[in-house]
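Hello forum,

I keep getting stuck at the same step: I have a sequence, I want structure tokens, and every attempt I make locally crashes halfway through. Rather than fight my setup again tonight, could one of you with a working pipeline run this one for me? It's a single chain of 142 residues.
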Amino acid sequence: MGMSVGGSNRGIFVEMNVVPLIDVLLVLLVIFMIIPHKQKGLMAELPPPASEGQADPQPAAIVVQVFADQSLRINQEAVGWDRLSTRLQEIFGSRANHTAFVRGDGALEFQVIARVIDVMRAAGVSSVGLMTPELEKLAETD
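Reply #2:
Ran it on my machine without issues. Output:
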């Protein structure tokens, strides 16, 4: 800041010296113009686009049906009690999702359903859901 005393008015005259401020401004402007050009990000490899021809050959849900005569079906495929465990191991061996459902007839005792659940858990099914007629009606309306 410059100040001169005296002069024609015989008073104090104050004037601001902005030259050093302009110098600082120009230095900052040059710095901020150069810095973005020196930055370089990492190269990213994008995944290839999914082809339209590939479809999921596995059904979304695995349902074990137990009928009143204690016959079994896995997604409409008839399976005997002796092959239930090995068939479930085959199905869930290549799947990431280890969730299955049990649908039983109303005339069955729960111990039959519990036996199926035990076999499913031993075969590697981590989550077992029970399907009831009320749930099926809700699923059909959705």
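The mean pLDDT is 81. If your local run keeps crashing, start a new thread with the error log.
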